[in-house]
Design brief:
One of its GO terms (molecular function) is ferroxidase activity. The protein is an all-alpha fold and 177 residues long. It has a single domain (33-175), classed as Ferritin (Up-down Bundle), CATH 1.20.1260.10. Helix content is 75%, strand content 0%. α2 (34-61) packs across α4 and α3 packs antiparallel against α6 (150-175). The chain is elongated, with a radius of gyration of 20 Å.
Amino acid sequence: MSNKSNITEIKDMRREARKHLEQGAVTADYEADRLELLKQLNQSLATELVCVLRYRRHYFMARGIHSRAVADEFLAHSNEELAHADSLAARIVQLGGEPDFAPQNLEGQSHAEYKVGADLEDMIRENLVAERIAIHSYRETIQSIGDKDSTTSDMLKRILAVEEEHADDLASLLSGM
């Protein structure tokens, strides 16, 4: 009897998989609020892109006795933020959304601000503030997803771990100023 039940479940699963093929990875058993999650992911994308731009500016504008090492850290962080943006954009598409790269929308959607910083210490401080904002935002999104979308949650947890490393790096730089 349980073998027949298993066969029925497999047949049902196969039948369901053939429905709504245009939805790609989003299957009938997807439990997260997809539209809300897409909104949150686009906000995270905007945050990452603003951080890329700020870190890049700081890389080129860093001046002072410690500037070379700090500038190198800014460039490394910028590249990692860009990789985060790429991951977020790819996941948005997988979920049937469209990543928003429109420059005019970035500032309004980003959780972090684009602050140029007056000097090297100020640049480090502004980047640390932005990292702390990103950490808070990612934790909130991960919590709101719960176990409804493990793929997105796992991706965000990987990004969060890097953001925490960035914050630790920047706090160390700031304490050495």
